[in-house]
Amino acid sequence: MTTANDRPAGTALDFTPAPGAAPLSRMVAAQAGAEIRAILRNGEQLLLTMIIPVLLLVGFSAAPLVNVGEGPRVDFMAPGVLALAVMSTAFTGQAIATGFERRYGVLKRLGATPLSRGGLMLAKTLAVIAVETVQIAVITGVALALGWRPGGSPLAALALLLLGTAAFSGLGLLMAGTLRAEATLAGANLVYLLLLGCGGVVFPLSTFPDAMEKALELLPISALAGGLRSVLTDGAGLPVAALTVLAAWAAVSLLAASRTFRWE
Amino acid sequence: MDSPAVEIIDLVKRYGPTTAIDGLSLRAARGAVTAILGPNGAGKTSTIEICEGFRRADGGTVSVLGLDPARTELRARVGVMLQAGGVPPAMRCGEWLRLAARFHARPLDPQALLDRLGLAEHARTPYRRLSGGQQQRVSLAAAVIGRPELVFLDEPTAGLDPQARHACWDLVGELRAAGVSVVLTTHHMDEAEKLADHVVIIDRGTVVAEGTPAALTGAERQLRFRARPALTLDELLNALPAGSSAKESPAGHYIIEGQVGPELLATVTAWCAAEGVTADDLSIERRTLEDVFLELTGRELR
Description:
The complex is a heterodimer. By secondary structure, chain A is an all-alpha fold. Chain A has one domain. Helices cover 70% and strands 0% of the residues of chain A. Chain B has 2 domains: 6-215, P-loop containing nucleotide triphosphate hydrolases (Rossmann fold, 3-Layer(aba) Sandwich); 219-286, Alpha-Beta Plaits (2-Layer Sandwich). Chain B has 11 helices and 13 strands. In chain B, the strands form 3 sheets. Chain B has a 6-stranded mixed beta sheet with strand order 5-6-7-3-8-9, sandwiched between helices. A 4-stranded antiparallel beta sheet of chain B has the order 11-12-10-13, with no helix packed on it. Chain B is elongated. At the A-B interface, helix 1 and helix 4 of A face helix 2, helix 3, helix 4 and helix 6 of B. Chain A: InterPro entries: ABC2_TM, ABC2_TM_bact-type, ABC_2_transport, Nod_factor_ABC_transporter. Chain A: It is a multi-pass membrane protein. Chain A: Keywords: Antibiotic resistance, Cell membrane, Membrane, Transmembrane, Transmembrane helix, Transport.
């Protein structure tokens, strides 16, 4: 009679030492793939990265809930929602995921593999950019269906998206590397809501008092949303002010994150 | 290849005002299994995490495969099993092993390793849904998948059921047979006795004894029995051959050491008859590492 214990112990394994690191490109690709699958598998993340932006885009474009000035509402909404999508992935999603990776010892364990910390950060960045690409494709598709006809320089828009991603990644990693995972979870969601409300995403900054408007324009979300709007909707050239604000946030936050990040 | 797997000289590690490791020195030979044995809080994990490059020493020198533990080239050559965690809870265990394999040039086949460790039917199960023993085996698998020269296992069998413990012991035996150096921590004496070529007993951050399990426990056997406490042992000591010893430790437990054989047994039982003592649980055994630890520190290991 055969029982579970009689089964052969599996394929013979040769434990003879044969150490060696894989090429960096293979390690980074593998880690980026794992990060992308983790983001796409996580229901809450998907809600944040895909469902909320699309609902906001459709809802606010269709119904006259806010006064967005001249022109079709979708012309105002689409760039704002693109900025929101970048923030949700690069900042909120990345901060929460990385915070819990730190808590569960995943960052520590990965530190004992041949994948270097630089390689890990590169993989995270690639994963964020890949998810953003999907978000931008979906949001643009929906916006086009709603009648959006973007103009302006695609390169200027790309520069804004990349600098925005850098700034939000820096802020997300700054939180994830210093706060407890639960505090990061709460804080990243709170900041997301605040910036959604006050960052010119769906409510124009002009609805705020003048003094406040000037201050709010310095937020990374306002710079990204406003910059994208000026390029894609108004066909403006390089939005220097917005790019400067984003570059400053990126430099400060990434520097602070690299100085303070705790891996365990 | 002449350098030992691990060489630690006068290691010191402080956490604030607490000195966790206080002048610890040890050497783990290549191709051997070295067990660091000690009670909780003795400094086992701090020591191994300094070797793994996770923590920096405050004093002394540590070399792993002849290199500073901070050297990145060691990451490919050394396999690590943390005491707990280290795997994303939502990740499927097969996916985690495939990822770990992709970091290495000539990895083991993840599926074969899952089969070998009895995890094949759980390949698609998220890590957090596995039992504690299954999670330990996933971590063990990830530690060896890159075909390392040296593996560090921090309490590899903590919380495992007996069957899973034996599976882990078998794997350590196979690693040793294949020429892999293994350094593990444990607070199970039987694990150290069974697995290790070399046992280092540490307590309060320093080495209190080391050697092969046989050398530590001694070739001598001892006779033990239980009887009413506070018997006078003078008569017995007179009757025993020279070089023997008799003591009561703890109360009501008697240990006779010396040339334990039929004659000594006869001497003890004759003395019992003369004294009117009924010896319970009379047995002849070897000293255990537990006894060694108790003698050295005056405390129980667990």
